[in-house]
Amino acid sequence: MARVLASKMGFTSLRRTQARTFRVRIVTADADLEFGCEVKCKGRDLFDLVCRTLGLRETWFFGLQYTIKDTMAWLKMDKRVLDQDVPKEEPLVLNFLAKFYPENAEEELVQDITQHLFFLQYGDYHPNVHKPGFLAQEELLPKRVINLYQMTAEMWEERITVCYAEHRGRTRDEAEIEYLKIAQDLEMYGVNYFFIRNKKGTDLLLGVDALGLHIYDPDNKLTPKISFPWNEIRNISYSDREFAIKPLDKKADVFKFNSSKLRVNKLILQLCIGNHDLFMRRRKVDSLEVQQMKAQAREEKARKQMERQRLDREKRLREEAERARDELERRLIQLQDEALMANEALLRSEETADLLAEKAQIAEEEAKLLAQKAAEAEQEIQRIKVTAIRSEEEKRLIEQKKLEAEMLALKMAEESERRAKEAEQLKQDLQEARESERRAKHKLLEITSKSAYPVRSLSPGSLPPDLPNLSFSTECLSFDFKDTDMKRLSMEIEKEKVEYMEKSKHLQEQLNELKTEIESLKLKERETHLDILHNENTERGTSKQSNFKKQTLQSAKSRVAFFEEL
After folding, report:
1. pLDDT confidence of residue 14
2. Are 238 and 269 in contact (CB under 8 A)?
3. CA dist., res. 208 & res. 212, Å (int)
4. DSSP secondary-structure letter at 413?
């Protein structure tokens, strides 16, 4: 209770006599961790606790960083935490960061140690998930880069998504290594810069990285003027603010420089010792611990390879089954449409047949009526013949009426014949309609018998009852490696390595194509001094590695002399 009250009253000093523990907050790229540490806790104890919590074994690349009086510092491993010049507020905030960088990430990194990559956040590309606008809230590029090109956020997202989709299927390990391979070729990768002066008082920049010490012009952090590999340096020491570098070449003089602050000297010495140790370690046989880590990594990679193959196989089978299901659904809908069209044609045929039958009946009745009128006309002719003798006048009239009756009879006969022909045609049309109806019914019966499914509409989420029941096993595989299995896995891993190299080469080609594509959209007037220097190096074909080799061709003696004359 007293401790809570003291905290509320603002007594935040870490050196309380009654307190046996103090609180520490570790800030990582993904989350913040909090620990309660004993007052006697050393830097190594705290660092090991953080590494165990994160499950990290390649601990030699990392450190715990803090800032004191606007100066960056790293926690010393062999001293108590509270005995160091750390901030005096509680909780003590330390940043877990990379302190040293590998020369070649692909060869040196055994365990996944990169964090907060695009791949880890979004996973593998899927068009139904990663739709336009899914990067709208992300700051994937620095504002300086965005302002340097005449490209909208939508244009950047489109190009990023195209590249993202094209590399679908890459594993997390591959994505991380490709990211680091691109980063490690940049001129400022892994370099810590410090302002220094030589004996003449010239302002210079000292760069410390995995390869050695580099001397830069303050206006050019990309191309060093002189470089000293770690294997050429015998001893590094400082007194007050003066640093002394003793080359391995006994003919070369010790060269010295001054830094601005004592704390900076301590930091430079820490980084030099750590980078030198890692430089020498990389050129020796791996320790037993590293050999075990690499063996475990190979076994884990083999397991992941088999698991990935199993998942790929299941994914492929699932996709094939989904395609087959979609094809069956499409075929069923097609058959339903054909059956519906056949039913409609049958109805139209029946209606046509009924109409033709009705017309035929009307034609027959009209023919009968005409025949009756013809008979009546014939009777009238006979009657006229009987009365023709009555008088000549009547005779003429009878002749006239006879002629009219004959003409009418002829006309009636022609009309009757025409109607009879029409009735005959209607009978033929009726027969053809009934034949069409019979064929339509036969076709409908044939379509219905071919379809394996009842002619009905699919309800959402339903499938025909006799569609294959698609199920997938997700049981975990047990691994029992034999010699033959290991040989097969070795061959598969070697094949995978070749494929990976091809993918890596393709990625580099894509990046070059993207650079060429957007070069015309660059606003030259917005380029910074470093942009211009980088472009000049690229045009000359000068890389970080080639420049380092060129610098080290000269003797150490001549380089030391050159440094003194800067």
Report:
1. 45
2. yes
3. 6
4. H
Cα-based angle 452, 456, 461 (whole degrees, multiple of 5) = 90
Write the burial class of residue 285 (CB in 10 Å: 0-12 exposed, 13-18 middle, 19+ buried): exposed
- From the list 385, 389, 425, the residue with the least C-alpha distance to 405 is 385
Which DSSP state fits 520? T
Report pLDDT digits (tens) over 163-201.
888 877 777 777 788 888 888 888 899 999 999 998 888
Residue 99 has phi, psi (to 5 degrees) of -95, -35
Q: In the chain, what is the straight-line distance between the N-terminal and C-terminal CA atoms, in Å?
A: 64
**Inter-residue contact 26 to 35 (CB < 8 Å):** yes
Q: Which tokens go with 479? A: 């691994």
Q: What is the pLDDT of residue 140?
A: 77
DSSP per residue over 145-183, as a string?
HHHHBS--HHHHHHHHHHHHHHTTT--HHHHHHHHHHHH
Which amino acid is located at 446 in the chain? Answer: E
pLDDT at residue 3, as a whole number: 40
In this structure, the strands spanning 71-74 and 255-259 are unpaired
Q: How far apart are CA 14 and CA 80, in angstroms?
A: 13
Tokens of 10: 């603002």
Q: Give the HSE-up count for residue 366: Cα atoms under 13 Å, Cβ half-sphere.
A: 17
Q: How far apart are CA 22 and CA 15, in angstroms?
A: 9
> Which residue ranges in the chain fall short of pLDDT 70?
1-19, 111-121, 384-395, 398, 447-490, 492-493, 496-497, 500
Can you give the pLDDT at residue 193? 93
Residue 183's CB is within 10 A of a number of other CB atoms, namely 14
CA 119 to chain centre: 8
Joined tokens for residue 69: 């009086």
Question: What totals of helices (H) and strands (E) does the chain contain, helices first?
Answer: 14, 12
Backbone φ and ψ for 156, nearest 5 degrees, come out as: -60, -45
Going by C-alpha positions, the residue among 157, 97, 112 that lies closest to residue 131 is 157
pLDDT for 118 = 52
Query: How far is Cα 67 from Cα 87, in angstroms, rounded to an integer?
Result: 8
Token code pair at residue 193: 């810069």
CA distance 241 to 257: 8
Predicted TM-score of the model (pTM): 0.63
